[in-house]
Amino acid sequence: MKFLTDFGDEAVILPLFVVAVIMFVVTGWRRGAIVWGFGVGLCLACLVLLKFAGLFWAQQFGVEGRAFSVSGHVAASTVVYGSLANMLLQPRKRSWFLALLPPLLIACVIGYTRLVLHAHTPEEVVSGAVLGILGASVINASLPEVPVYLVRFCVPVLLPIVLLFHGSVLEAEPFLQKMFRISYFSADQSLGW
C-alpha cells in the first residue's frame, strides 16, 4: 500500500505541478497553463486552509487526540492526476460525466491506501476526495482545448518526474502543524484569544 500511496505524496505532486506548468508555457499553451496552474494552486491552497481550520477547531474546543485533517494525499493526487488524465483522455470535447471517472478512480485508490495505512479516518479521506474531485471538475470545465502536440509531450515529460520523486516523503503535515502553532500563539498573544 505504501508504494501506491507514495504517488500522492506532496514530494511527488509539487514537482509534477511545477514541471507541468513549465511544460505548458514552454510549448505555447499559456492560457491552459494559467487555468490549470491557478485551478490546482487554488485547490492546494484550500487544502492548507482546511487543515488549518481542523487544527484551529481542535485548539479552540480542546479536541482529544488528533485534529481533523483533510487527506492531502487524496485531494492533491485527485486534482493533479485527475485533471491531467482528463486532458489526455478528452483533449477536445469534454463530457462532464466522463471527466468525473479519472478523479474518482484516483480518489478511491489513494483513499483506500490512506485508510489501510491508518493515516486518515474515512471522513478525512472523503473530504479530501470531494475537494480533489471538485477541483478536477472545475479545471476540466474551464480549460481551453488541449493542443494535440501537447498531449504527445505529457507522458514522456511528466512520467519521469513522477518516477524520479516516487518514494520521497515531504513532511508537510508536521510543517503545517508547526506553522499553525506559531501563527496561533502569535495571534493569541497579540489579540488575546
TrEMBL record:
Coiled coil: none
Transmembrane regions listed in the UniProt entry: 12-29, 35-58, 70-89, 95-113, 125-143, 149-170
Residues annotated as domain Phosphatidic acid phosphatase type 2/haloperoxidase: 64-140
Protein name as catalogued: Phosphatase PAP2 family protein
SUPFAM superfamilies named among the record's database cross-references: Acid phosphatase/Vanadium-dependent haloperoxidase
Keywords, sorted A to Z: Membrane, Transmembrane, Transmembrane helix
Natural source organism: Acetobacter vaccinii
Source superkingdom: Bacteria
Lineage, top ranks: Bacteria, Pseudomonadati, Pseudomonadota, Alphaproteobacteria, Acetobacterales
